[in-house]
Amino acid sequence: MWRHVASNFLTFLVLIVFLMGGAILWGQSQYVTAGPLEQSMCLRVERGSNITRVSEDLVERGAVTNGALFRIGADYSGKAGQLKAGSWLIPEAASMQDMTDIITRGGASTCGTQVVYRIGISQVSAEVRELDPATETFVEVADFELMADGSRPPEYSEVIDRRDTRYRIDVAEGVTSWQIITALNAIEVLEDPIEGVPPEGSLAPFSYEVESSDSRLGLLEQMRDVQRTRLSEAWDARNPDVPLEDPAEVLILASIIEKETGVADERPQVASVFVNRIRRGMRLQTDPTVIYGITNGEGVLGRGLRQSELRKATPYNTYVIEGLPPTPIANPGEASLMAAVQPDETPYLFFVADGTGGHAFAETLDEHNRNVARWRQIEAERESE
Question: Using only C-alpha atoms, what is the Rg of the chain?
Answer without folding.
Answer: 30
